[in-house]
Structure formats: structure tokens, C-alpha cells
Amino acid sequence: MKKCKQLTVEICVGTSCHLLGSEDLFESLKRLPRKIQDAVDIQGVNCLQSCGKGPNVRINGLILTDVTPEQLLRVIETNFYCEKESI
User: Fold this and answer.
1) In sequence order, what are the beta bridge partners of 43?
2) How far, in whole angstroms, is CA 86 from its chain's centroid?
3) What pTM, to 2 d.p., does this model score?
4) Which end of the chain has the least Cβ crowding within 10 Å, N or C?
């Protein structure tokens, strides 16, 4: 069985980020391939202390600002990988 890297994706749902499009980020995650969706822990968080630069996202501790749905999908797909199965 392949072991896949787990990603924690925290999307700010505070007022500023909500108005700047955080809901669009949640919607975009539905477009990820199923195996990636299963390995991503998606959470809504109240504030990432970067109000006005949103929508903001934290992925495994790294805060990204002014994130578009396309950027979010690209970052997740770039940082996701599974180990090759050993024989």
C-alpha cells in the first residue's frame, strides 16, 4: 500500500477572507483527484493574522496570502506525493 504525504490545509473564514473569496477556495478543493482529497485535512480557521491580504491559507504551517482557487490547487498538487510501493 502506498503511503501518501498528509497535508493540512487551513482556510481562513474570518470576515475579511470570506469577503475576499475563501468560500471559492473550499469549492475548488472538490476538483482535486480523489486520492489527494483523501490525504488532505481541510479545516476552516477564524483568522491567520493577515487580514486585508486574503483570502489566506496555511498549508502544513506555511501561510499563503491572496490565494486564488487555481493557486491553491496548484500548491496542493505540487506538494502532494505518495511513496513508491516497495517490492
Assistant:
1) 10
2) 29
3) 0.86
4) C
